[in-house]
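From the shared-data thread, chain only:
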Amino acid sequence: MSGFSGLPTRSSGRLPNGVLSLDYLKFLQLSVNPELADARIRDAAALEHAMAAVRSGSMRTEHPAMKVFFDGCQFWLASHFHRYEAARRLGARHQEFWCEIQPGSKDDALRYASKHSGIPCLCRDHSCATG
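Structure, as C-alpha cells:
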C-alpha cells in the first residue's frame, strides 16, 4: 500500500526500536556462522570458566560484553564464542548473555572475529586483513 504513513521507517544504519547497543540476548537468539564452528574455541581454560559461570548462574554478569552484529533478522555472534559453547554443551538454551549489539551482517561478524579473536580470515572477499 503506497502512501501508508502509519508504519515506522527503519534507517539501515540504526538498530530497530527496542534493541539497545548493550542488552541481554538469550542463547537461542544468537546465530553462529557455521564457518566459525571449528575455529571458535581456542582457550580450554576460558571454556571451563564459562561452563562454571553457566552452572553457578553468574553468566549474565560476565564482562566484557559479547560482540554481536544484527542484520535486521539475525544476531550474529562475533566474540566470546567460549561462552556460547559453554551454554551449548550444558544444554542451557535459555542462558542470557550481556551483549554489545551493532548493525551489521554475517560477514561483519566474520571480519570482527578474524581481527579480534585470532580466527583466520574466512570472509568471502578476504577483507579481514585489509579492512
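The first helix runs from residue 44 to 56.
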